[in-house]
Amino acid sequence: MQNTSKTIVFFGSGPVAAASLASLSQYFDIEVVITKAVPPHHKGTAPVEELSRKLNLPILFASTKKELNDIFASQSFNSRLGVVVDYGVIISEQVINSFKLGILNSHFSLLPEWRGADPITFSILSGQKTTGVSLMIIDSGLDTGKLIAQQELSISSDSTTRSLTDELVALSNQMLANYIPKYMDDQITLYDQPNTIAPTYSRKLTKADGDIDATKPAAQIECEIRAYLGWPGSRMKFKDRTLIIKKARVDSAPNSQLDILCSDGKYLIIDQLLAPSGRTVSARDFLNGYA
Is 86 a domain residue? Predict the structure, then answer.
């Protein structure tokens, strides 16, 4: 697809937003990027800000709903459409209504499934076999807006939040490049989210979510380990150590003294963990070298 003369305002902050912005900048003129400001003493990166500076894109900072409202109260933009991906700030109707075509959001689930803050993690936690990307025009509700398009994506039995995120970002980028021009050219009819399934809601995770609980079925804990890889991580106690479990599977009999008997009578077989040295090692190597 050739670059178009149509402009958009982009809202986003995290790494998923940066990946989306990198793709969108190949097809559209970015009038301005609106992102969160880096907090004082912030130790991490600011992916969207860093990419925007590299691409020489104008940047405005809004870390709260009020700050965002103030920007749109004090200045106007030429773009008819806003695009929001991985922003993390509530967008008011005042801001939405400042765009003739509204604000398009790429949400990583098949809405109304897994509305909310963390749809990718919860699609893995639930053990479902498919997820997808929903392009919608946001409204004042929580991911309740009308749809432009949806597309499914299979979840493999070894998918982690990281790997599934990469797949969904790639799918989202393809869909945004395809559907934004059609929507801006009035070739798309918006439609309601399906009412054939009840809405489900994801939430932000806490560190406590990563504590392995043997009162749960083994298959559920295995899903949690894949879903929580990275943050908050899955932790278990072994003697005087707290171990971060990286990979596990379910079996009917134990394989080592690390394995956990769960509430359904199945064992959670620990395959890989983070060693005290900071290296990822097999359960066997850990037991031989550390225990």
Answer: yes
* CA–CA separation, 249 and 181 (whole Å): 45
Cβ contacts of 231 within 8 Å, gap of 6 or more: 205
Q: Determine, yes or no, domain membership for 1.
A: no
pLDDT at 5: 56
Residues of the chain with pLDDT under 50: 1-4
Q: Which two structure tokens, joined as six digits, stand for 269?
A: 């077989």
Task: List all residues 6 or more positions away from 41 whose beta carbon is below 8 Å from its beta carbon.
Answer: none
Strand partners, 275: none
Cα–Cα distance for residue pair 16/1, rounded to 1 Å: 22
Q: Identity (one letter) of the amino acid at 223? A: C
Please enumerate in sequence order all residues whose Cβ is within 8 A of that of 64, keeping only pairs 6 or more positions apart, or say none.
Answer: 89
Last residue of a domain, one of 149, 184, 219: 184
For residues 256 and 275, what is the distance between their CA atoms, to the nearest angstrom? Answer: 16
Q: What is the DSSP string of 8-20?
A: EEEE--SHHHHHH
Using alpha carbons only, what angle is made at residue 162 by residues 158 and 165, rounded to the nearest 5 degrees? 100
Q: What CATH code is carried by the domain that includes residue 263?
A: 3.10.25.10
Alpha-carbon distance 283 to 261, whole Å? 16
Task: Read off the pLDDT of residues 93-102 as tens digits, 9 standing for 90 and up.
Answer: 999 999 999 9
Tell me if 57 sits within 8 A of 32, measured CB to CB.
yes
Q: What domain range is 96 assigned to?
A: 7-184
User: Do 179 and 215 belong to one domain?
Assistant: no
Q: What is the CATH number of the domain that holds 148?
A: 3.40.50.170
- 65 close to 18: Cβ distance less than 8 angstroms: no
**Look-up of token digits 């597309």:** 151
Antiparallel, parallel or unpaired: β 234-238 and 146-154: unpaired
